[in-house]
Amino acid sequence: GSSSMATVCGSSMALMDAGVPLKAPVSGVAMGLIKEGDQVVVLTDILGDEDHLGDMDFKVVGTGEGITALQMDIQIEGVDRDIMSRALSQARAARLHILGKMREAIEVSRLEVAEYAPKYISLTINTDKIRDIIGPGGKIIRELSAEYEAKIDVDDDGTVKIFCSNGEAADALTRRIQEITAMPEVGKIYDGLVRTIKDYGAFVEILPGTDGMVHISELAVTRVEKVSDILKEGETVKVKVIDIDSRGRIRLSRKAALEDNK
User: For the segment 116-147, what is each residue's pLDDT rounded down to a tens digit?
Assistant: First the structure.
């Protein structure tokens, strides 16, 4: 009968349905009291009239293991130990009954947060890459926020906090940020974009804003006379990072990537 106790039960079920992890579901019940002289009646699950005309409004909330919250309003001077004991005992029976009914609908939190529930993600990037997310004058972070309808906070220690209206957008934005801030790894093969061709090799973009050089000797197993015989500007090519020197210059090899993919 109590709207506030219905809210407790409904909220608990809604959180579990949305995939929010809870230690245990919670139910609540409002207890009442009618006292005339020595005659006492403890009421369970009181309605508005019983609340208004009665002598006590005692709300009891808890899990199957015990009570988590209490709230009491009384119209008399006080309640004795016997009345309190009876109220708590009846409340326990009622709460456990309600919990049983709740479990018929949903017993535990879903494993995944609901697809359309707002989502918060935190990830850590290399502090040297913070400027790549921000962009000149904040251009990149504004574009990302608008495209994914998200709020993005970047801390000085490289912590990136993402707030999105749904999980799909949050996951897509996370992947985009990881692409922008990825660091090249020696031994890894990338799908690179040929940016520039020179007589001695080609410059290939393996990550957003990150280029490496493929020397002509690393284009193929056989001898290559002209770089343009193998590569064209604007095409995609698989290359392997074979070295990164102390100045951050990246050496790439198409030959090694081909051998690894045999």
Answer: 778 889 999 989 889 989 999 999 999 999 99
- Given a contact cutoff of 8 angstroms between Cβ atoms, the answer to whether 11 and 22 are in contact is no
β-strands 67-74, 56-62 pairing: antiparallel
Instruction: Enter the tokens of residue 5.
Output: 């106790």
Buried b (16+ CB within 10 A) or exposed e, 135-162: eeeeebbeebbeebebebebeeebebeb
* Domains (range + CATH), the chain: 3-105 (3.30.230.70), 119-181 (3.30.1370.10), 189-260 (2.40.50.140)
The SS3 call for residue 10 is: helix
- Please state, in angstroms and rounded to a whole number, the distance separating the CA atoms of residues 189 and 240: 4
**Model confidence pLDDT, tens digit, residues 150-185:** 999 999 999 999 999 888 899 999 999 998 888 889
pLDDT of residue 1: 66
- Pairing of the two strands 201-207 and 150-154: unpaired
Selection from 201, 198, 205, 212 nearest residue 234 by Cα: 205
DSSP E strand stretches across 128-181: 150-154, 159-164
State the pLDDT at residue 193: 94
Q: Which residue has the tokens 């000149």?
A: 136
Which amino acid type is present at position 46? I
User: Checking DSSP bridges between strand 119-124 and strand 201-207, what pairing results, if any?
Assistant: unpaired
pLDDT of residue 71: 93
